[in-house]
Amino acid sequence: MRATYLYEAGDVRVQDAPDPVIEEPTDAIVRVLRSCVCGSDLHPYHSLTAADGPVPMGHEFLGTVEETGSEVSGLQRGDLVVAPFAYACNTCEFCRSGLHTSCPKGGFFAAGIGGAQAEAVRVPQARGTLVKLPNDVDEKLLPSLLTLADVYGTGYHAAHQARITPGDSVTVIGDGAVGLLAVLSAKQLGAERIILMGRHKTRTDLGRAFGATDVIAERGNEGVAKVRDLTGGHGTRAVLEAVGHMPAYEMAVGAVRPGGVISRVGVPQYEDAPIGFGSLFGPNITLTGGPAPVRAYIDRLLPAVLDGTVDPGRVFDRTLALEQTPDGYRAMGQREALKVLLTP
Amino acid sequence: MRATYLYEAGDVRVQDAPDPVIEEPTDAIVRVLRSCVCGSDLHPYHSLTAADGPVPMGHEFLGTVEETGSEVSGLQRGDLVVAPFAYACNTCEFCRSGLHTSCPKGGFFAAGIGGAQAEAVRVPQARGTLVKLPNDVDEKLLPSLLTLADVYGTGYHAAHQARITPGDSVTVIGDGAVGLLAVLSAKQLGAERIILMGRHKTRTDLGRAFGATDVIAERGNEGVAKVRDLTGGHGTRAVLEAVGHMPAYEMAVGAVRPGGVISRVGVPQYEDAPIGFGSLFGPNITLTGGPAPVRAYIDRLLPAVLDGTVDPGRVFDRTLALEQTPDGYRAMGQREALKVLLTP
Asked: Nearest C-alpha of chain A: how many angstroms from B277?
């Protein structure tokens, strides 16, 4: 098959690779119908050293089941399925509590198991991981269904962990696909005031379409001052942080109301940060978030995607064939494209 | 009147001071019946420089109303009242949401306004701050009622912010008065497994009486390993951190289960700490807590104190007269006493 590998920063190649095969009786092989490039793929795209490459790329996909291991029930050849970016058993105590990212049998696609920017993928723990979609689904829905693999579930995780309730006030930091879908998720959970912090007008316009009531282009102290101006001086009860860099964390601390919640889904590019009396403790701020257990949210989010109530697939603004994947990385790396959809 | 001042580390004096007077129409003057020394008083007792002294001491008291300002309704001379350590209006949006420590009209007793280790105290925002107690209350209940001013409400805040529910598993770090009352609070909220980390047997014995199911004397990695041994390798869902030093935070990170909550009420003696992928983010740990808005909890906690269901006053293991306050600091500083009650 053809599959995508990152050799080192900036060097993405689509090349021949062995067809994936069933290795464990709990595996399935899925033929990829749609995959995409993630904002988090850009971290290694910008920093991987040649010594650490090549690594298989891509962790978001939907496709059809091609083969199942002997212990995989409930799935058969030809089923249309979507996979969360983390595979998991869906039966252990962590999965039952909705924390599939901590499943002892679980792990991640791409570098962990085989990339999804490819023609086919081996899926461990297939029964727990794969979610069946209607086989007759309209092809136009495929981009939105694909967002259930990561970015929609991740944006939803941010809002869910912040315990957004009707009437709430929320700041979303970051206008990438996850930030925009955090806006959509906050709106679905009833947030009344949704302030989106982002600088790319085409993106923040989509954020407004998803439910943002205000957009702030300024960053740092200036951005924080704008949030406070809009909220009677106190900030919003929740801040959803979808970037992961320290300045975004500092803005979150500045924009959150005393007693409020900072919910992070941008992977932190730092380890130590201020959490003492002068930042989180004094004003009783709660810090939450982490890698999204998107498997826990797919069943909940699927109906509104299928019936067209929401259209999270609007985050895809470019579609390329698998062979053009390197150009997709380039376009996203240069912020020409928000998110690139890949077809076989 | 007589009042307590800290001149510098180790130098506590009880001396003559001006009687407090009504300064604002929202003030009341309370004659102190019982006050006490707090673990947090030991921080300046160990570190205050002569240049920063003298400062009035004490923020926990109950007593009788002696005089009220012209705008204070609902209180009259002779009423028995208890005050939270932070005064507040109890009517603004922060107070209504239970965050009295962020009240714009609020502040703290002791260094902020006048100490409670004294014969009388001026209470700002008296109508919002003071909570009436039955005037005929049994004198034996006064120590337990006094804990509502801080340590019981603070321990309860830790458990409340961790959203303890029936059947929960909890680790409490610290066997001071707040840690022990965090045990009691977790028990009241239905926790099934309560692991108390502390090294002083008389204190941890009281912790067992309050509901601790296990006691761990070890610290650091050794202590964390013990918690994991007791919990199938994963740690407890909640960790209540009642110390405030970095090693306690590190133990909390080690002892909390993936997807769990660290709730801090020990005032952090650090500003930066690990919160990245390797500590909080990867396992989706929530960090919460702060200065306790004890005013929000007094009404809830009072009935079980009055009817004797709980006896949080057991944290007082020594009673001294106000004039002996310096000896109370010495005894607590040397860990001879857990918590010292002061009588006029």
From this structure: 6
Residues of B in contact with A106 (CB under 8 A): none
What does the pLDDT read at residue A111? 79
Asked if the Cβ–Cβ distance from B276 to A270 is below 8 Å, we say yes
A125 touches A74 (CB < 8 A): no
Q: How is residue A69 written in tokens?
A: 């291991």
Decide: helix, strand or coil at residue A106: coil
Three-state DSSP at B201 gives: helix
CB B158 within 8 A of CB A281: no
Q: Which H, E and C letters describe A185-233, residue by residue?
A: HHHHCCCCEEEEECCCHHHHHHHHHHCCCEEECCCHHHHHHHHHHHCCC
> pLDDT by residue (tens digit) across B19-44?
999 999 999 999 999 999 999 899 89
| Alpha-carbon span A269 to A273, nearest angstrom | 11
Which residue on chain A is closest to B291 by alpha carbon?
A282
Q: Six-digit token pair at A25?
A: 């009786």
Q: Among the residues of B9-150, which ranges form H helices?
A: 42-47, 93-96, 126-129, 142-146
Q: Which of B290, B152, B137 is nearest to A260 (CA)?
A: B290
Per-residue pLDDT at A112? 79
| Contact call for A278 and B271, based on CB within 8 A | yes
Q: Which domains does chain B have, with CATH numbers?
A: 2-150+293-343 (3.90.180.10), 156-289 (3.40.50.720)
Contact with chain B for residue A280, Cβ under 8 A: yes
Residue A321 CB contacts under 8 Å (≥ 6 apart), including other chains: A342, A343, A344
Residue A141 near residue A285, CB atoms below 8 Å: no
Both ends of chain B: CA-CA distance in Å?
11
Distance from CA of A98 to the nearest CA of B (A): 9
Q: Which segments in chain B show pLDDT lower than 70?
A: none
Of residues A18 and B110, more confidently modeled: A18
Q: Length of chain B in residues, anyone?
A: 344
Helix (H) or strand (E) holding B331: helix B325-333
A195 with A240: CB under 8 angstroms?
Answer: no
Is any Cβ of chain B less than 8 angstroms from the Cβ of A233? no
**Whole-angstrom Cα distance, residue B240 to residue A211?**
37
Q: pLDDT tens digits, residue range A133-190? A: 999 999 999 999 999 999 999 999 999 999 999 999 999 999 999 999 999 999 999 9
Q: Do the chains contact at B281 and A267, CB–CB below 8 Å?
A: yes
Rounded to the nearest 5°, which phi and psi values hold at A15? -145, 170
| A268 contacts B281? CB cut-off 8 A | yes
Q: What is the pLDDT of residues A76-135, one digit of tens each?
A: 999 999 999 999 999 999 999 999 999 999 999 987 788 999 999 999 999 999 999 999
Q: How far apart are CA A173 and CA B16, in angstroms?
A: 55
Please tell me whether the interface predicted TM-score (ipTM) of this complex is above 0.85.
yes
